[in-house]
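User: My instructor asked us to take a sequence, write out its structure as C-alpha coordinates, and then describe one feature of it. I'm not sure where to start. Here is the sequence I was given:
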Amino acid sequence: MDRRDFIKTGMVVTAATSLDFGLPLWVRQAFAENGKDLVAVLGGNSPVDMLQRTVQELGGIEAFIKKGDRVVIKPNIGWAKTPELGANTSPEVIGELVKLSFEAGAGRVEVFDHTCQEWKSCYELSGIKEAVESHGGTMVPGNNERYYTSVSLPKGKVLKETKIHKSLINSDVWFNVPTLKHHGGASMSIAMKNNMGIVWDRRIFHRSGLQQCIADLCTWEKKPTLNIVDGFRTMVRNGPSGISVEDVAQTRAMFTSSDPVAVDTAATKFFSQLRPMDVSDVSHIQKGEESGLGTTDLASLNIKRVKL
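Assistant: Let's start with the prediction itself. The C-alpha coordinates for your sequence are:
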Protein backbone atom coordinates (compact mmCIF):
# COMPACT_ATOMS: atom_id res chain seq x y z
CA MET A 1 0.00 0.00 0.00
CA ASP A 2 1.55 3.28 -1.12
CA ARG A 3 1.64 5.82 1.70
CA ARG A 4 0.52 8.70 -0.53
CA ASP A 5 -2.49 6.72 -1.69
CA PHE A 6 -3.22 5.56 1.83
CA ILE A 7 -3.57 9.00 3.38
CA LYS A 8 -5.66 10.71 0.70
CA THR A 9 -8.40 12.49 2.57
CA GLY A 10 -11.84 11.06 2.14
CA MET A 11 -10.82 8.38 -0.36
CA VAL A 12 -13.42 5.63 -0.35
CA VAL A 13 -12.74 2.28 -1.98
CA THR A 14 -15.82 1.03 -3.79
CA ALA A 15 -17.04 -2.52 -4.46
CA ALA A 16 -17.97 -2.95 -0.81
CA THR A 17 -18.80 -6.25 0.74
CA SER A 18 -21.14 -6.71 3.68
CA LEU A 19 -19.51 -6.90 7.08
CA ASP A 20 -20.92 -9.94 8.84
CA PHE A 21 -18.41 -12.40 10.28
CA GLY A 22 -20.73 -13.29 13.19
CA LEU A 23 -21.23 -9.68 14.32
CA PRO A 24 -24.38 -8.61 16.19
CA LEU A 25 -27.15 -7.25 13.98
CA TRP A 26 -27.00 -3.71 15.37
CA VAL A 27 -23.26 -3.52 14.61
CA ARG A 28 -23.81 -4.61 11.02
CA GLN A 29 -26.61 -2.08 10.71
CA ALA A 30 -24.44 0.73 12.08
CA PHE A 31 -21.73 0.05 9.51
CA ALA A 32 -24.29 -0.31 6.73
CA GLU A 33 -25.88 3.02 7.63
CA ASN A 34 -22.62 4.99 7.59
CA GLY A 35 -21.31 3.15 4.52
CA LYS A 36 -17.86 2.42 5.92
CA ASP A 37 -16.25 -0.94 6.69
CA LEU A 38 -12.97 0.49 8.00
CA VAL A 39 -11.82 3.95 9.06
CA ALA A 40 -8.14 4.94 8.92
CA VAL A 41 -7.12 8.26 10.47
CA LEU A 42 -3.60 9.66 10.18
CA GLY A 43 -1.85 12.73 11.52
CA GLY A 44 -3.76 13.81 14.61
CA ASN A 45 -2.15 16.07 17.19
CA SER A 46 -3.25 13.72 19.96
CA PRO A 47 -4.78 10.26 20.38
CA VAL A 48 -7.97 11.97 21.55
CA ASP A 49 -8.26 13.96 18.30
CA MET A 50 -7.88 10.76 16.32
CA LEU A 51 -10.45 8.81 18.33
CA GLN A 52 -12.97 11.64 18.14
CA ARG A 53 -12.64 11.82 14.35
CA THR A 54 -12.87 8.05 14.06
CA VAL A 55 -16.06 7.94 16.10
CA GLN A 56 -17.48 10.82 14.07
CA GLU A 57 -16.84 8.91 10.84
CA LEU A 58 -18.68 5.92 12.28
CA GLY A 59 -21.78 7.92 13.09
CA GLY A 60 -21.01 8.50 16.75
CA ILE A 61 -20.36 6.03 19.52
CA GLU A 62 -24.10 6.03 20.24
CA ALA A 63 -24.48 3.94 17.09
CA PHE A 64 -22.92 1.09 19.07
CA ILE A 65 -24.04 1.72 22.66
CA LYS A 66 -27.60 1.70 23.95
CA LYS A 67 -28.77 3.42 27.12
CA GLY A 68 -27.90 1.39 30.21
CA ASP A 69 -25.43 -0.89 28.43
CA ARG A 70 -22.61 -2.50 30.34
CA VAL A 71 -19.53 -1.61 28.29
CA VAL A 72 -16.14 -3.31 28.56
CA ILE A 73 -12.97 -1.88 27.06
CA LYS A 74 -10.01 -4.21 26.53
CA PRO A 75 -6.77 -2.29 25.94
CA ASN A 76 -3.26 -3.69 25.93
CA ILE A 77 -2.03 -3.04 29.49
CA GLY A 78 0.34 -5.99 29.59
CA TRP A 79 3.48 -4.20 30.65
CA ALA A 80 4.58 -2.03 33.57
CA LYS A 81 5.77 0.68 31.19
CA THR A 82 5.03 4.37 30.81
CA PRO A 83 3.17 5.55 27.69
CA GLU A 84 6.13 6.88 25.72
CA LEU A 85 7.60 3.34 25.55
CA GLY A 86 4.72 2.20 23.35
CA ALA A 87 4.12 -1.16 25.05
CA ASN A 88 0.54 -0.40 26.03
CA THR A 89 -2.46 1.37 24.53
CA SER A 90 -2.37 5.17 24.90
CA PRO A 91 -4.17 6.14 28.12
CA GLU A 92 -5.73 9.14 26.36
CA VAL A 93 -7.55 6.81 23.95
CA ILE A 94 -8.98 4.69 26.75
CA GLY A 95 -9.99 7.66 28.90
CA GLU A 96 -11.77 9.31 25.98
CA LEU A 97 -13.53 6.07 25.05
CA VAL A 98 -14.79 5.75 28.64
CA LYS A 99 -16.04 9.35 28.48
CA LEU A 100 -17.77 8.84 25.14
CA SER A 101 -19.38 5.61 26.35
CA PHE A 102 -20.97 7.34 29.31
CA GLU A 103 -22.11 10.24 27.11
CA ALA A 104 -23.83 7.65 24.89
CA GLY A 105 -25.75 6.34 27.90
CA ALA A 106 -23.66 3.43 29.15
CA GLY A 107 -24.69 2.35 32.62
CA ARG A 108 -21.24 1.01 33.54
CA VAL A 109 -17.86 1.00 31.84
CA GLU A 110 -15.20 -1.52 32.86
CA VAL A 111 -11.60 -1.78 31.68
CA PHE A 112 -9.28 -4.74 32.18
CA ASP A 113 -6.40 -6.81 30.83
CA HIS A 114 -4.79 -10.05 31.92
CA THR A 115 -1.39 -8.45 32.23
CA CYS A 116 1.99 -10.07 31.59
CA GLN A 117 3.64 -8.28 34.51
CA GLU A 118 2.29 -7.44 37.98
CA TRP A 119 -1.18 -6.09 37.29
CA LYS A 120 -1.31 -3.14 39.67
CA SER A 121 1.98 -1.79 38.34
CA CYS A 122 0.80 -2.23 34.75
CA TYR A 123 -2.49 -0.46 35.41
CA GLU A 124 -0.78 2.45 37.14
CA LEU A 125 2.43 2.96 35.12
CA SER A 126 0.56 2.74 31.82
CA GLY A 127 -1.52 5.74 32.90
CA ILE A 128 -4.67 3.82 32.01
CA LYS A 129 -5.97 3.45 35.56
CA GLU A 130 -5.90 7.20 36.13
CA ALA A 131 -7.43 7.93 32.72
CA VAL A 132 -10.27 5.48 33.27
CA GLU A 133 -11.12 6.47 36.81
CA SER A 134 -10.97 10.19 36.05
CA HIS A 135 -13.88 9.65 33.65
CA GLY A 136 -15.92 7.46 35.99
CA GLY A 137 -14.88 4.06 34.62
CA THR A 138 -13.96 1.02 36.68
CA MET A 139 -10.67 -0.87 36.48
CA VAL A 140 -11.29 -4.60 36.86
CA PRO A 141 -8.48 -7.00 37.84
CA GLY A 142 -7.64 -9.95 35.63
CA ASN A 143 -4.98 -11.61 37.77
CA ASN A 144 -6.96 -14.47 39.30
CA GLU A 145 -8.56 -17.54 37.74
CA ARG A 146 -11.78 -16.92 39.65
CA TYR A 147 -12.49 -13.98 37.33
CA TYR A 148 -12.75 -16.32 34.33
CA THR A 149 -15.38 -18.74 33.03
CA SER A 150 -14.97 -21.64 30.60
CA VAL A 151 -16.42 -21.15 27.13
CA SER A 152 -16.43 -23.45 24.13
CA LEU A 153 -14.87 -22.53 20.79
CA PRO A 154 -16.66 -24.90 18.39
CA LYS A 155 -15.09 -23.23 15.35
CA GLY A 156 -11.56 -23.52 16.73
CA LYS A 157 -9.19 -25.87 14.92
CA VAL A 158 -6.79 -26.42 17.84
CA LEU A 159 -8.18 -24.42 20.73
CA LYS A 160 -11.63 -25.83 21.48
CA GLU A 161 -12.20 -24.37 24.94
CA THR A 162 -10.75 -21.63 27.10
CA LYS A 163 -11.53 -19.49 30.13
CA ILE A 164 -12.61 -15.93 29.31
CA HIS A 165 -12.94 -13.02 31.72
CA LYS A 166 -16.43 -12.75 33.22
CA SER A 167 -16.65 -9.02 32.53
CA LEU A 168 -16.75 -9.77 28.81
CA ILE A 169 -19.21 -12.58 29.22
CA ASN A 170 -21.52 -10.24 31.15
CA SER A 171 -21.05 -7.24 28.86
CA ASP A 172 -23.52 -5.79 26.40
CA VAL A 173 -20.80 -4.17 24.29
CA TRP A 174 -17.04 -4.60 24.24
CA PHE A 175 -14.32 -2.69 22.48
CA ASN A 176 -10.96 -4.24 21.61
CA VAL A 177 -8.37 -1.43 21.74
CA PRO A 178 -4.81 -2.66 21.10
CA THR A 179 -1.68 -0.69 20.49
CA LEU A 180 0.16 -1.27 17.21
CA LYS A 181 3.48 -3.01 17.76
CA HIS A 182 6.00 -5.63 16.76
CA HIS A 183 5.86 -8.99 18.53
CA GLY A 184 8.77 -11.40 18.63
CA GLY A 185 6.58 -14.52 18.70
CA ALA A 186 3.49 -13.57 16.69
CA SER A 187 5.29 -11.10 14.36
CA MET A 188 2.67 -8.42 15.07
CA SER A 189 0.52 -7.60 18.09
CA ILE A 190 -2.62 -5.82 16.92
CA ALA A 191 -6.35 -6.58 17.29
CA MET A 192 -6.40 -10.37 17.01
CA LYS A 193 -3.34 -10.81 19.23
CA ASN A 194 -4.79 -8.44 21.84
CA ASN A 195 -7.52 -11.02 22.50
CA MET A 196 -4.97 -13.13 24.36
CA GLY A 197 -5.49 -10.73 27.26
CA ILE A 198 -9.10 -11.88 27.72
CA VAL A 199 -8.18 -15.49 28.63
CA TRP A 200 -6.74 -17.06 31.77
CA ASP A 201 -4.40 -19.79 30.51
CA ARG A 202 -2.10 -18.52 27.77
CA ARG A 203 0.48 -21.28 28.13
CA ILE A 204 -1.59 -23.58 25.94
CA PHE A 205 -1.25 -21.05 23.10
CA HIS A 206 2.52 -21.44 23.09
CA ARG A 207 2.37 -25.22 23.51
CA SER A 208 -0.22 -25.83 20.81
CA GLY A 209 0.74 -23.32 18.13
CA LEU A 210 0.53 -19.61 18.91
CA GLN A 211 -0.73 -18.37 15.55
CA GLN A 212 -3.55 -20.91 15.16
CA CYS A 213 -4.64 -20.50 18.77
CA ILE A 214 -4.90 -16.73 18.32
CA ALA A 215 -7.19 -17.27 15.34
CA ASP A 216 -9.18 -19.92 17.22
CA LEU A 217 -9.74 -17.59 20.18
CA CYS A 218 -11.11 -14.93 17.85
CA THR A 219 -13.85 -17.33 16.74
CA TRP A 220 -15.53 -16.90 20.16
CA GLU A 221 -19.14 -16.06 19.43
CA LYS A 222 -19.11 -12.75 21.34
CA LYS A 223 -17.14 -10.57 18.95
CA PRO A 224 -15.82 -7.09 19.80
CA THR A 225 -18.21 -4.39 18.69
CA LEU A 226 -15.22 -2.42 17.38
CA ASN A 227 -11.51 -3.09 17.02
CA ILE A 228 -9.75 0.26 17.50
CA VAL A 229 -6.02 0.04 16.74
CA ASP A 230 -4.06 2.78 18.49
CA GLY A 231 -1.05 3.58 16.33
CA PHE A 232 -0.27 7.00 17.75
CA ARG A 233 2.98 5.40 18.86
CA THR A 234 4.26 2.23 17.19
CA MET A 235 6.79 -0.16 18.69
CA VAL A 236 8.91 -1.03 15.66
CA ARG A 237 11.20 -3.61 17.25
CA ASN A 238 11.85 -5.56 20.45
CA GLY A 239 8.16 -6.19 20.99
CA PRO A 240 6.05 -6.94 22.79
CA SER A 241 7.56 -5.11 25.78
CA GLY A 242 10.30 -3.04 24.14
CA ILE A 243 13.55 -1.84 25.63
CA SER A 244 13.66 1.94 25.20
CA VAL A 245 12.08 4.88 23.41
CA GLU A 246 14.44 4.07 20.53
CA ASP A 247 12.11 1.17 19.72
CA VAL A 248 9.16 3.51 19.22
CA ALA A 249 8.11 5.67 16.26
CA GLN A 250 5.60 8.51 16.53
CA THR A 251 3.28 7.35 13.76
CA ARG A 252 -0.03 9.09 14.60
CA ALA A 253 -2.34 6.49 13.09
CA MET A 254 -5.62 4.82 14.06
CA PHE A 255 -7.43 1.98 12.30
CA THR A 256 -10.96 0.94 13.25
CA SER A 257 -13.30 -1.81 12.06
CA SER A 258 -15.54 -4.56 13.33
CA ASP A 259 -13.54 -6.91 11.06
CA PRO A 260 -10.40 -7.96 12.99
CA VAL A 261 -8.76 -9.49 9.91
CA ALA A 262 -9.21 -6.35 7.82
CA VAL A 263 -8.07 -3.98 10.56
CA ASP A 264 -4.97 -6.09 11.27
CA THR A 265 -4.23 -6.24 7.54
CA ALA A 266 -4.46 -2.46 7.18
CA ALA A 267 -2.33 -1.89 10.29
CA THR A 268 0.30 -4.41 9.15
CA LYS A 269 0.54 -2.75 5.74
CA PHE A 270 1.04 0.57 7.48
CA PHE A 271 3.68 -0.96 9.78
CA SER A 272 5.54 -2.29 6.73
CA GLN A 273 6.46 1.28 5.87
CA LEU A 274 8.56 1.32 9.05
CA ARG A 275 10.22 -2.08 8.67
CA PRO A 276 9.65 -5.07 6.36
CA MET A 277 6.51 -6.95 7.39
CA ASP A 278 4.17 -8.70 4.99
CA VAL A 279 0.68 -9.78 5.99
CA SER A 280 1.74 -13.33 5.13
CA ASP A 281 4.39 -13.06 7.89
CA VAL A 282 1.57 -12.70 10.43
CA SER A 283 -0.03 -16.07 9.93
CA HIS A 284 -2.80 -15.65 12.50
CA ILE A 285 -4.28 -13.04 10.14
CA GLN A 286 -4.39 -15.57 7.32
CA LYS A 287 -5.75 -18.24 9.64
CA GLY A 288 -8.43 -15.84 10.81
CA GLU A 289 -9.53 -15.26 7.25
CA GLU A 290 -9.63 -19.02 6.65
CA SER A 291 -11.92 -19.32 9.70
CA GLY A 292 -14.33 -16.74 8.29
CA LEU A 293 -13.43 -13.96 10.72
CA GLY A 294 -12.93 -11.33 8.04
CA THR A 295 -11.05 -10.44 4.89
CA THR A 296 -7.53 -9.42 3.91
CA ASP A 297 -8.89 -8.08 0.62
CA LEU A 298 -9.00 -4.40 1.51
CA ALA A 299 -10.00 -3.47 -2.02
CA SER A 300 -13.34 -5.19 -1.43
CA LEU A 301 -14.21 -2.90 1.48
CA ASN A 302 -15.47 0.66 1.87
CA ILE A 303 -12.53 2.35 3.58
CA LYS A 304 -12.59 5.95 4.75
CA ARG A 305 -9.09 7.43 4.87
CA VAL A 306 -8.71 10.71 6.72
CA LYS A 307 -5.66 12.96 7.12
CA LEU A 308 -5.90 15.34 10.06
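For the description part of your assignment, you could build on this observation: Residues 1-18 have pLDDT under 50 and may be disordered. Try explaining in your own words what that tells you about the chain.
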